[in-house]
TrEMBL record:
It is a multi-pass membrane protein. The keyword Membrane applies. Its main location: membrane. This is Bestrophin, RFP-TM, chloride channel-domain-containing protein. One of its GO terms (molecular function) is chloride channel activity. Residues 187-225 are annotated as: Disordered. InterPro entries: YneE/VCCN1/2-like. GO terms for cellular component: plasma membrane. It comes from the Eukaryota. Keywords: Cell membrane, Ion transport, Membrane, Transmembrane, Transmembrane helix, Transport. It is found in: Cell membrane. It comes from Favolaschia claudopus. Pfam families: Bestrophin_2.
Length: 511
């Protein structure tokens, strides 16, 4: 997503043009400009008078303008709705994480009187919050048409989930659970996968090496070492974000795909007029490039395929809620909140699926584009009598204006891909990751440990004493600055009223 004007940022001119629709409409604008040039030359040099009556120009132009405006408005509405849905995912993820981390007790005993240590409880709650983080990542890959679970930013979060219906039973394809069966391939069978062996020494060595790499005094990191240990790709640009560094290092039996895998840019993205030669070189292209682009070099929007990964994650979250309720570890009010927020995740997933899988009908798009082409094709014949050679720039501007709005509507209709103007789903997922880690960093202290201290002045500005002084008795109430103060609630109520008067007066004076 282009969040700021790219024309005033660094980078080459071709990248800046890619953030606009100039590259996409350039061939069509050039074609209609050539038509206008031919009409102007033939008419002005008296070869033949190609001017026609312009009676329909105003009527057709108004109708086309209204239809294109509706097309662009409907596409932008979908764009905004997609952004709102991601805000809902962020809100629900925060709420679920806070309920699990704060409301679920750490010292607990189940119905069978089996105690659970604090360490076990923290590991359990943090693991479920990691699943919440995995939901947003799974939705991102689903919206981009990337199926399966073997991605560098998704697999470490959900690899703890069971693979087979029978834990101690047979491990065959018939016993494989849906979330793993959908990602299974014949080249790397799941039944050959083995969990990583526990090794404290390797863990300490890994953490020490990563710490030294991140905190190097020279400001440089040994990225080749990181790649050799984790098997992950490093960021290609200096200063770019590498989200895999903030995740666990889990050995996978399947080579993990990158977290972000945009289609490779070709020369036709920077020089659109070369697309006419693409049809002749189609047989010479590599198979993977042909998959991402059509015969004319245009990007092919990935279509959604049915993915059950986000759904499976919400099922496990609901299973965890039922587990807490069976053991009486969650009160009814937070349990209702947890259930509602999980339902909100499922509802948001359905809405995002609706946005991405319900484009404008093809008949409408095709008829609108053909009508616009006919209008621009006839436009030079209608205006050449009045504009003469100005017909050429006039037609170029009209085609640039109308075709640009039409192309913008088509580009932002599905805002979940890798185009420059699509929503930045990677940034949204990273923001959710930061927020969830901030929640789990909270130690949930007893409020009495930080309220009744010298750092707290709850009755300021009328009474500048701290909470520790307010809760004491004796000489503190006869201090010279507070000789008229009455102890107890009567004084607190009087002070709160004085606070209101002082704040009301001070803030109004500053306006």
């Amino acid at each position: 997503m282009v969040a700021e004007n790219p024309l005033f940022r660094g980078g080459h001119l071709f990248w800046k043009l890619k953030a606009t629709v100039v590259n996409d409409i350039f061939p069509e604008v050039a074609f209609f400009t050539l038509v206008a040039t031919a009409v102007s030359i033939v008419t002005e040099r008296k070869i033949h008078n190609l001017a026609v009556n312009n009676g329909l120009l105003t009527v057709l132009g108004t109708v086309l303008g209204l239809v294109i405006s509706f097309r662009t408005s409907s596409a932008y509405e979908r764009y905004q709705e997609g952004r709102k849905m991601w805000t809902n995912i962020s809100i629900a993820s925060r709420n679920i994480a806070q309920i699990i981390w704060i409301q679920v007790p750490s010292d607990r005993t189940d119905k069978e009187k089996r105690p659970m240590t604090t360490v076990q409880s923290v590991v359990e709650k943090k693991s479920m919050i990691n699943l919440v983080q995995g939901f947003s990542v799974a939705v991102k890959h689903f919206l981009r048409g990337e199926n399966g679970v073997y991605y560098e930013d998704l697999y470490p979060l959900i690899c703890l989930l069971p693979r087979y219906a029978n834990v101690a039973g047979p491990k065959t394809e018939a016993d494989m659970l849906p979330v793993w069966a959908a990602s299974e391939d014949k080249e790397h069978p799941l039944h050959t996968a083995q969990p990583p062996p526990p090794s404290r020494s390797n863990t300490l060595g890994y953490n020490t090496a990563v710490s030294s790499m991140i905190g190097d005094s020279d400001g440089k990191s040994d990225k080749s070492w990181f790649k050799s240990v984790t098997g992950r790709r490093t960021a290609s640009r200096a200063g770019s974000v590498d989200p895999e560094k903030a995740l666990a290092s889990i050995q996978s039996h399947v080579p993990l795909k990158p977290a972000s895998n945009p289609p490779e840019a070709s020369i036709t993205d920077y020089f659109p007029f070369l697309r006419i030669f693409s049809i002749f070189t189609r047989c010479c292209r590599r198979k993977e490039k042909r998959h991402n682009r059509d015969a004319f070099g245009r990007k092919i929007k990935p279509s959604f395929a049915e993915s059950n990964v986000p759904l499976e994650i919400t099922i496990y979250l609901n299973t965890y809620l039922a587990y807490l309720l069976r053991n009486g570890w969650l009160q009814p009010a937070p349990a209702t909140g947890l259930m509602n927020n999980i339902a909100s995740l499922q509802d948001t997933l359905s809405n995002l699926d609706r946005i991405g899988n319900t484009p404008l009908p093809f008949a409408y798009q095709a008829h609108l584009r053909m009508s616009l082409w006919l209008y621009l094709l006839v436009l030079p014949f209608q205006v050449v009598a009045g504009l003469h050679y100005l017909t050429i720039p006039g037609t170029a501007f009209a085609s640039f204006l109308l075709l640009g709005f039409l192309e913008i509507g088509q580009e932002i209709e599905n805002p979940f891909n890798y185009d420059e103007n699509d929503l930045d789903l990677d940034t949204f997922c990273l923001a959710i990751q930061r927020e969830l880690h901030e929640i789990t960093a909270h130690t949930t202290p007893d409020p009495t440990t930080y309220i009744f201290t010298a750092w707290n002045q709850p009755l300021a500005p009328a009474d500048k004493r701290n909470a520790e002084e307010l809760t004491q008795t004796g000489d503190v109430y006869t201090h010279a600055d507070h000789s008229d103060v009455e102890p107890g609630m009567a004084h607190i109520r009087r002070t709160l009223l004085k606070n209101w008067r002082d704040v009301d007066r001070i803030t109004r004076q500053q306006q």
